[in-house]
Amino acid sequence: MTRCERFDQCVAFFEQQAKKLPATTHFMESTYCLTGNHHCARFVFFMSRGEDDIPLDLFPCQHVRGEILSRG
Ligand code: SF4
């Protein structure tokens, strides 16, 4: 199983969310980071913007929000 190459840039996101939603955070990590980053809104945002200012509160499952933000 290969971990997403962007994991180091998402550590702050996971640390913040793990305090509030530990089970959800674990689920997101196993679903997106360890299985399929091409479905992750954070990854898509990075690929379209090519920069590291991914919103700290953008969840991997927030595809529509990620698309709207990436146009901005
Ligand atoms: S949240 Fe998305 S971009 Fe971040 S490490 Fe996981 S799959 Fe990669």
Explain what this protein looks like in three dimensions.
The protein is mainly α. It has one domain (8-71). The protein is 61% helix and 0% strand. The chain has helices spanning 7-20, 22-33, 41-49, 63-71. It is globular, with a radius of gyration of 11 Å.
Structural class of the helix and strand makeup?
Answer: mainly alpha
Order of helices and strands: HHHH
Overall domain count: 1
- Quaternary assembly: single chain
Radius of gyration: 11 Å
Small molecules (ligands, ions, cofactors) in the structure? iron/sulfur cluster
Q: Topology, please?
A:
Layout (H helix, E strand, L loop, with lengths): L6 H14 L1 H12 L7 H9 L13 H9 L1
Helix pairs in contact: 1-2, 3-4
The structure holds iron/sulfur cluster.
Describe the structure in brief:
The protein is 61% helix and 0% strand. With 72 residues, it is mainly alpha-helical. It has one domain (8-71).
Descriptors:
72 residues, globular, binds iron/sulfur cluster, 61% helix, mainly alpha
